[in-house]
Specification:
The structure holds three protein chains of three kinds. Chain A is mostly helical. Chain A contains eleven helices and three strands. Chain A is elongated, with a radius of gyration of 23 Å. The two termini of chain A are about 30 Å apart. Classes of the chains: A mainly alpha, B mainly alpha, C alpha+beta. At the B-C interface, helix 2, helix 4, helix 6 and helix 7 of B face helix 1, strand 10, helix 6 and helix 13 of C.
């Protein structure tokens, strides 16, 4: 590694991760990217989040795309021409080959397609849970750090309670009461991870409250809310965001563990942890290795990025306060 | 100082009460009946039996009364009896505690003995290739999911090569062996699970050690020592280490709770009879007394750990803040 | 430095020495068995789980038992008379039997056990329903007991196969649920309890004074191994003498000659069936129509599931009656996997895609529903995934909801579902009243689908009062026909047990109930010395 050129690898890898997560329907799908029939159609685009709604046509989601479509002339398929959910008992446990690049699982579903879509699930879980944890944690932490001793007392005790609470129990209990959905799962995971972010925020806010800039603002007559939001938080957020990147990695691991135990994302959505769980005991090396590698790479990427970000900001901030 | 401690202890007590109250309420709000004999179901739920269970354990009383009664007994260290096997919760927990403690203490031991030198190395050669490579490797280690590694290790080292036992805390018949043999046997069985528990935290602790050492190296007292002519090497390092261990101790205080929390995944894969597995089973059978008992213990440790950490920090802080006297 | 090296070498040597210890045979020939979890207690009356049953029936005895072909055979009772359609049963007990602590066993102990089962405070959830109708019992002498019921009961003798007898004197003065005997049982059985290291091992030794056939294996040690993959690994490593295998395990072992040499594999029928219940109580607009239920059955490739997912370790099911049972009608052909037929049935029922969105609908309601199922049943999840995909191409959206067992049970018992998947451990008696009678739909019954058919109601009520097997078989045959026509459940498959046995274990003849579940069963297992 060349000193001075630190940011590139992490940032690049993260962009790749994001691209795969967003563009999964374009990378692995049984729908063609381009369908030339009597006109031009872009079926795969229809499954892309947000944008896809402009393109999607009714009936597309239940059509059997493996058959030639009416008046089809030619088609361009995605790099992995399988959907993550199409089963084919004839292909069960197919080893990696030209047909199934990374092999197939117990029901003949293409592993590469499932890993690609697993990226979307994992990234979604990571982002949503971290945002949830940040929203709650930063708010409470700022309250504790700035509003005064009473609020500090209450929030600090709240943090302790939240830390001591059996999180696994909370996860299972709440998850079982909710309809199965990835965003909800992610929010619940985020709900168990806000305490440490709150502590960070609190520590930073308390530190910055003494800073000369803040004193000046107060002397100029700014009210407490204004001081907090305009002057303190922006500066204190940076270390908190660094901590948040590690939270994100942790959340993804939690989801993987939950899916491994059978409690994670709803069928048939693939999750890397779920893939590993299904692979257990099958004795097929590709089912065990590839999802694990994907999970490891994704998390390493996030970690490295977080570390580099932190180094760039202020070496002093390398002191981690748990 | 004493006043501070006293106040904190009072607060700690009330926090404990808060934790137990929240857990209690949440437990009873979650749907599902306690179900001792879960596996065999040949007929629908027998109301007479459900009622008998509820009245035996006072589950048909108002929640507030149940909580007060339970809290009163806990104050006398009586955690009640498990709904599943009707044994004292205390006994059930104590059965599992040594297994979890052994695993976690060993894991902590490994983490410290490996992480500190690694961190020191990285601090000494800051920003060099070694530093970057170590950092990257440690993060990669953290990213490996523990259950995945456990499965791979089990398949490779236990089944494949036969170097380690597959599962369980002891070999068959080990109870009859002499203590040293039993000890070694226990260590051998612990090897794989401990590794799986510890490797992930290496990154965190090594980076922490590195950061602390760097901070200490840059501190006033060390710089003044250098300016007095003490060369780099052993003497300087001892100075730096002498200051770095305090925040480290603080961290140790916060690790207290992890000593008795088991990892459900690792315990399942290695058939380790620990607290994690106990909590997991108890959740599914809605064994309220056991769940509450485990919560009390972990809550006590969290609160104690925070208290310890804060106190240590306070002790350390005045010394760190005071600028070194430059002669 | 040299000292360090010396210590290190000693440690390694010690460890490798220990490593050898575990696998070499030493001392008494011991059967290495497993339990799928820690039993909560060893008292089979209060505790219903499989692991408790295994131990309780080795340490204790039941009055009668099943042999490997599901026939009733004597155990503690030498002979018996069942009169008046089961209203009166007299058991004549084997004389001279003693408890493991030396105290003589008498009919009074049987009376004690019966008292305890009937007492709700004993929490005998699994056993009590079978003895509920007992109205009186009388100890006629030390070896004879008479049991009376008011109603006819075909199973009056058979149900005693599930109740290991407990000693009154052992529980005297103790709280039944908290007694130490629940952790260190005293029985009359072929094995005596020795020790239980919680979480580690449970040890039994053969009882030299056993009144019945002497067990050939002198010692058994059980280890709790909850994870199936770990168990298979233990079997292959030589640490376990037998375990159940999953189809993938069998595949893997057969493909590897080295593994195949170490292990023998047998496939045996098991009284277990998977099913999907379609809720017909009117809370959803789909499943009250039998055509739709039949369409669901034909939309699922059951043959493919048995062939590819189960790898032949099972059979497509036609009802909750198992082929091994005497009432099974083998002339009923399961509905074939036929998506076109399924589509036709759906169309005929009025469910077509009227608005062109790819989903079938009727009167503006789209055909989408949620299927409830418990966590942890890997093969069932696969079957449901197959169904989900198949239905998707048929224009039906099925969402799968996996719940933790306790919550799944709560929703299931309350009827809070449109469709529900599960598995049943089947009884040895084909009594269908609880499953299909319309009165059993809620409030404790197990007619989860809320199926209601007048003829089935009459037949089930009638058959459970009869004792004559032929008459009952005729009635149950007719019931199976009706169920086949109506498909209140989609019966997925019966699942066989795949057993992996180490080469040194011989004489294992598993019954459809379980490996341990026959008599004398485990008593005739033998350990042959391993050839080096």
């Amino acid at each position: 590694m060349i000193p001075g050129r630190k940011v590139r690898p992490g940032g690049l890898a993260l962009m790749v991760l994001g691209a795969v997560a967003l563009g999964a329907p374009l990378l692995a799908n049984d729908r063609p990217l381009i369908l030339r029939g009597s006109g031009w159609q872009f079926p795969a685009l229809g499954e892309v989040p947000i944008l896809g709604r402009l393109v999607e046509q009714p009936g597309w989601s239940r059509r059997d795309w493996s058959l030639p479509q009416p008046s089809e002339r030619w088609r361009l398929s995605p790099p992995v021409p399988f959907s993550f959910r199409q089963v084919s008992l004839a292909d069960r446990y197919a080893p990696p080959s030209r047909h199934h690049l990374l092999g197939a699982d117990a029901l003949g579903r293409d592993l590469a397609a499932r890993i690609v879509h697993g990226t979307t699930v994992s990234v979604q879980v990571g982002l949503v849970s971290t945002c949830t944890a940040l929203a709650i944690g930063v708010l409470l932490g700022a309250l504790a750090g700035y509003t005064g001793r009473a609020a500090d007392f209450v929030v600090s005790r709240g943090i302790e309670v939240a830390l001591a609470f059996p999180t696994f129990f909370l996860l299972l209990g709440v998850l079982s009461l909710l309809p199965p959905s990835v965003p909800l799962l992610a929010m619940v995971i985020g709900l168990t991870r806000w305490p440490s972010l709150a502590r960070y925020t609190r520590a930073e806010v308390m530190r910055l409250a003494q800073a000369p800039l803040v004193e000046a603002a107060r002397a100029a007559g700014a009210g407490p809310a204004r001081v907090l939001f305009r002057h303190i938080l922006p500066h204190s957020l940076t270390p908190v965001l660094v901590a948040a990147t590690f939270q994100m990695a942790g959340a993804m691991l939690v989801e993987a563990g939950l899916s491994f135990l059978g409690f994670g994302v709803p069928e048939p959505l693939p999750s890397w942890g779920g893939l590993l769980s299904q692979a257990q005991g099958s004795g097929r090396w590709w089912l065990v290795i590839f999802p694990g590698v994907a999970l490891t790479l994704a998390i390493t990427t996030i970690q490295v990025l977080g570390e580099q970000y932190r180094e760039k900001l202020d070496p002093r901030l390398s002191r981690l306060q748990p | 100082m004493i006043a501070y401690l006293f106040r904190r202890l009072l607060v700690a007590g009330s926090t404990l009460v808060g934790i137990t109250l929240v857990t209690f309420v949440m437990l009873h709000l979650t749907p599902g009946e306690p179900s001792p004999g879960l596996n065999i179901e040949t007929r629908g739920p027998d109301q007479a039996i459900i009622q008998a269970l509820r009245s035996r354990y006072g589950l048909d009383r108002p929640l507030g009364l149940q909580y007060l009664d339970w809290a009163g007994r806990v104050a006398r260290l009586d955690f009640g009896r498990s709904l599943v096997d009707h044994r004292l919760v205390r006994t059930r927990i104590l059965e599992r505690l040594p297994h979890t403690l052994a695993l976690n203490l060993a894991a902590l031991g490994i983490i410290f003995t490996v992480a500190i030198p690694l961190g020191a190395l990285a601090a000494a050669r800051r920003n060099s290739t070694v530093d970057q490579a170590t950092g990257f490797a440690l993060y990669a280690l953290y990213a490996l999911p523990s259950f995945w590694v456990a499965l791979l290790l089990q398949a490779g080292l236990a089944v494949g090569l036969g170097w380690f036992p597959l599962a369980g805390p002891a070999s068959e018949g080990a109870a009859a062996w002499s203590p040293p043999a039993r000890w070694l046997d226990g260590l051998w069985h612990m090897a794989l699970p401990v590794f799986c528990l510890s490797y992930g935290s290496l990154a965190f602790f090594a980076r922490f050690a590195r950061a602390n050492l760097l901070e200490a190296l840059a501190s006033e007292s060390v710089r003044s020592a250098r300016s007095r002519g003490l060369g780099p090497g052993r003497v300087l390092w001892r100075h730096a280490l002498g200051q770095a261990w305090i925040p480290f101790l603080t961290l140790a205080g916060l690790l207290l709770p992890t000593l008795v929390s088991g990892s459900v995944l690792i315990e399942r894969i290695f058939a380790w009879p620990g607290m994690g597995a106990l909590l997991y089973e108890s959740l599914f059978t809605r064994d309220y007394p056991t769940i509450l008992g485990l919560t009390v213990i972990s809550a006590t440790l969290v609160v104690a750990g925070t208290l310890l950490a804060d106190t240590l920090y306070l002790l350390a802080d005045p010394r760190l803040r005071r600028p070194a006297q430059i002669p | 430095m040299k000292r360090l090296a010396a210590i290190a070498v000693t440690c390694v040597a010690a460890l490798t020495g220990l490593a050898g210890c575990g696998t070499r045979e030493r001392g008494t020939p011991t059967l290495r068995a497993y339990l799928s979890g820690e039993p909560a207690s060893l008292n089979a009356v209060t505790q219903g789980d499989f692991n408790t049953e295994i131990i309780a029936k080795l340490v204790g005895d039941t009055l009668v038992d099943f042999d490997a072909r599901l026939n009733i055979v004597p155990r503690l009772a030498d002979r018996w008379e069942a009169e008046d359609d089961g209203r009166r049963v007299v058991f004549h007990l084997h004389p001279g039997v003693r408890w493991h602590d030396g105290v003589p066993f008498t009919a009074d102990d049987v009376a004690f056990t019966l008292e305890k089962v009937l007492d709700p405070a004993s929490l005998a959830a699994g056993k009590r329903p079978y003895f509920e109708t007992v109205t009186a019992w009388q100890v006629l002498d030390d070896n004879t007991i008479e049991i009376s019921r008011d109603e006819a009961y075909a199973r009056a003798v058979e149900v005693w196969a599930m109740l290991p007898i407990l000693a009154r004197h052992v529980y005297a003065g103790e709280d039944f649920l908290e007694a130490p005997a629940n952790r260190s049982p005293v029985g009359t059985g072929p094995y005596r309890f020795v020790d239980w290291q919680a979480g580690s091992s449970l040890e039994l030794v053969a009882n030299p004074d056993y009144f019945g056939p002497r067990p050939a294996i002198p010692r058994i040690v059980f280890r709790p191994l909850p994870d199936p993959a770990t168990r298979v690994a233990a079997l292959l490593a030589g640490d376990l003498d037998f375990t159940s295998l999953r189809p993938v395990d069998r595949e893997r072992i057969q493909a590897n000659p080295d593994l195949a040499r170490r292990v023998r594999i047998t496939q045996v029928e098991r009284l277990y069936v998977w099913y999907i219940a379609w809720n017909q109580d009117g809370s959803n607009p789909f499943f009250t129509d039998a055509r739709i239920r039949r369409a669901m059955t034909q939309a699922l490739d059951r043959e493919g599931f048995v062939r590819d997912v189960l790898q032949g370790a099972g059979e497509v099911a036609t009802s909750l009656v198992h082929p091994a049972m005497w009432s099974f009608r083998d002339d009923i052909e399961p509905w074939p996997f036929d998506r076109r037929a399924a589509a036709g049935l759906l169309d005929a029922a009025g469910w077509q895609d009227h608005d062109g969105d790819g989903l079938r609908d009727r009167d503006g309601t789209p055909f989408q529903f949620t299927l409830l199922m418990p966590v942890g049943n890997e093969e069932l999840i696969r079957a449901m995934t197959l169904l989900q995909e198949s239905l998707r191409t048929l224009g039906i959206e099925m969402e799968i909801r996996k719940l933790e067992y306790n919550l799944y049970r709560a929703d299931r018992d309350a009827g809070q579902f449109a469709a529900m998947a599960g598995g049943w451990v089947l009884d040895t008696d084909p009594d269908c009243y609880d499953f299909w009678h319309s009165s059993q739909a809620r409030g404790g019954g197990i007619n989860y689908a809320s199926y209601k058919d007048a003829e089935v109601d009459t037949l089930c009520a009638q058959a459970r009062r009869l004792v004559d097997r032929d008459k009952r078989a005729a009635i149950y045959g007719r019931v199976q026909e009706i169920l086949h026509r109506d498909q209140p459940n989609t019966f997925l498959a019966y699942r066989d047990t795949l057993l992996g046995l180490s080469r040194r274990l011989e004489g294992v003849e598993p019954s459809p109930r379980s490996v341990w579940g026959s008599y004398p069963g485990p008593l005739s297992w033998r350990l042959i010395p391993e050839t080096p």
